[in-house]
Write a structure and sequence with these properties.
Elements: H1 5-20, H2 36-55, H3 61-95, E1 110-112, E2 115-119, H4 125-139, H5 145-157, E3 164-169, E4 175-182, E5 185-191, H6 200-212, E6 216-220, H7 224-232, E7 235-241, E8 252-257
Antiparallel strand pairs: 1-2, 2-3, 3-4, 4-5, 6-8, 7-8
Helix pairs in contact: 2-3, 3-5, 4-5
């Protein structure tokens, strides 16, 4: 057989490095989470291409038949990765983003209820985008998958680049969620769904309050769970907008922290 075990193993290692973006130019490196085209390419490789190469004649008719769709999927995945990075770049240029990750007023990490909350770094960004995606799919029922896909480059560029970023970690080092601050405005707070209702969100709000004082936050009207959470940690509704900050038809509730002596929303 043309491809012995050693050659196949080296090929798999090289393929894994390529998929991981080790040898890819930055613009071709796959985002996290990977686009559908890349996931389909990997699945097709394992269920069709690799068995054909191992058990059939490598350059026979069957290999050519299997190789055609593999080539199409691969080119589709490369195209998706290129377009992703172009959309992120365009989003950054549109809003004039310069990364301020790790440049907040708060200094160093702290622990609240055993949860370590530290300043975010550039290395965190793509992993946090994956957390954002899982969290939004779990909580934002009013968004379609197309809406979420459209928002992802903007989130990557803005939430994870423009805001003062703080990351919550458990003791083993696993990332639980993150928040983005703009002065005393809590512009982003997203948790990995497996850490919902475990005190992580409350701990992050307390950390933000300790750094910035009285906080304010905008919540999507369709996200009832978020509204109830913020009311539980001391916020009240003080206004409403018909559209979100980008002019999309997703109404926002404006909330602020209630302090002793307040007489209502006002």
């Amino acid at each position: 057989m043309l491809f012995g075990p050693a050659i196949v193993k080296k090929g798999l290692i090289l393929g894994g490095k390529l998929v991981g973006g080790v040898f890819f130019p930055k613009i071709l490196r796959p985002p996290d989470p990977a686009p559908l085209s890349l996931r389909l390419s990997v699945i097709y490789f394992w269920v069709a291409v690799l068995p054909t190469v191992i058990f059939a004649e490598p350059f026979g008719v069957l290999s050519w038949i299997v190789g055609g769709p593999a080539t199409v999927l691969f080119l589709w995945a490369v195209w998706d990765c290129v377009q992703w990075h172009r959309r992120v770049k365009a989003a950054r240029e549109k809003i004039g983003v310069k990364s301020v990750v790790g440049e907040g007023e708060g200094k160093g990490a702290s622990k609240v209820d055993g949860i370590e909350i530290r300043e975010g770094t550039e290395a965190d960004r793509e992993g946090l985008l994956s957390i954002w995606l899982r969290s939004v799919r779990e909580t934002h029922d009013f968004l379609s998958e197309a809406d979420i896909e459209e928002l992802m480059p903007e989130v990557f560029a803005c939430f994870l680049g423009e805001l003062e970023l703080w990351v919550a970690e458990e003791e083993g080092g696993g990332v639980m969620g993150f928040m983005g601050l703009n002065g005393n405005s809590l512009d982003a707070l997203f948790l990995d769904p497996k850490y919902f209702r475990k005190g992580v969100g409350r701990a992050m709000v307390e950390r933000a309050r300790a750094m910035k004082g009285r906080l304010k936050v905008d919540v999507n009207e369709g996200n009832e769970g978020a509204r109830l959470f913020y009311e539980a940690v001391g916020f009240e509704i003080c206004g409403r907008s018909e559209v979100d900050g980008q002019g999309r038809a997703f109404p926002l509730l404006h909330m602020r922290e209630v302090c002793e002596g307040d007489e209502g929303s006002g």
